[in-house]
Amino acid sequence: MAPAAPAPLPPVTPPPLEGGSGEDGAEAGRRRRGKPARRRGQAASRSGDAQPKDAKGRGRGRATAAPEPPKAPSSRHGEVDLQGLAQELDIAISDERWYRQALFHASYVNERADGLSSNERLEYLGDAVLDLVVGHYLFLRYPHMPEGDLSRLRAAVVRGNALSVRARAMGLGRFVVLGKGEEQASGRDRPSLLADLFEAVVGAIFLDQGLEAASAFILKNLAEELATAAEGDSRANYKAMLQEAVQGKSTAQITYHVVDESGPDHAKVWVCEVQVDGRSCGRGTESSKRRAEQEAARDALLRGWNPDA
To answer: Of the listed 182, 196, 199, 273, which one is catalytic?
Structure first.
């Protein structure tokens, strides 16, 4: 029986981003842009306030508007495709600011001087949410498993390699906004960057829609890792390892195919084949389709998959 969905946290009211609206945010924005803060007691002028008067009651000039909070970049280099991201994640975005921040890599933010925040804080938050959701799932799935074994299984599910493979399969890399140097260094496909991006997106979903939506996203996209753990399989995830090996050297596509299945329903035997760009690279035979695919990937790795072969 599938475990109950995690109980939702109390409603979260997201605080304003740094440099957001309000006098405190405006002052922070002034300091970041190198402008002096207002002296104590010096009020910010706002649209509609009375203008200063001279001795004869005449206006001495137009009131100065308070600095606006930093905005998302509008240049082509810094464009954020939130519509495409929403379609890829299969979610309805309510508060866009969290997803924009999730897509701003530190290399891009460091090239600007307008107070943008990178995705590093969201990465931190997403990491914590991942641990909570996966830990909760395993706690319910294995009611008698010792704490040490639960921790080991959780670490296997949320390890950086698994997250980067999943982020690459989802195409998240094409949405991240990078600095010019990172872009030239092919950072968009770097495993550690993709794993961090996955965590940042989880953090954005949590802040925008709460724990229940974040939990649904995690359990859906890490279903294979969770299923492997649920089967009591502590072996390495060979499919993830093969994906990392292949896409770290080429743009080839990996597909798995059922070659044969035999035996009665209660004792089926599956034979699966893994292909890289249509070329057979390995086969596996097991008692479930999922295990057979893992064995096929393991076979390909043992054969020493080579993109130039």
So the answer is: 199
Distance CA 167, CA 179 (A): 20
- CATH 3.30.160.20 spans which residues of the chain? 252-309
CA distances from 45 to 26, 140, 161 (A): 12, 56, 52
Active site residue 233: no
Any catalytic annotation for residue 286? no
Residue intervals of the chain classified under CATH 1.10.1520.10 are 16-35+72-232
Contact in structure between 185 and 261 (CB atoms under 8 Å): no
Annotated catalytic residue within 127, 224, 225, 273: 127
Q: How many C-beta atoms surround the C-beta of residue 111 within 10 A?
A: 15
94-131 pLDDT per residue, tens: 999 999 999 999 888 888 767 788 899 999 999 999 99
Residues pairing with 257 in the sheet: 273
Q: Phi and psi at residue 258, in whole multiples of 5°?
A: -80, 120
Task: Give the model confidence (pLDDT) of 136-168 as tens digits.
Answer: 999 998 888 788 878 888 888 888 778 888 888
Cβ neighbours for 302, distance < 8 A, ≥ 6 positions apart: 282
Q: Which CATH architecture has domain 16-35+72-232?
A: Orthogonal Bundle (1.10)
Answer yes or no: are the C-beta atoms of 177 and 104 closer than 8 Å.
Answer: yes
- Output the pTM of the full model: 0.57
Share of the chain above pLDDT 70, in %: 70
**In which residue are the tokens 């008698």 written?**
144
Our measurement of the distance from residue 8's CA atom to the centroid of its chain's CA atoms, rounded to an integer in Å, reads: 20
Q: Which CATH architecture has domain 252-309?
A: 2-Layer Sandwich (3.30)
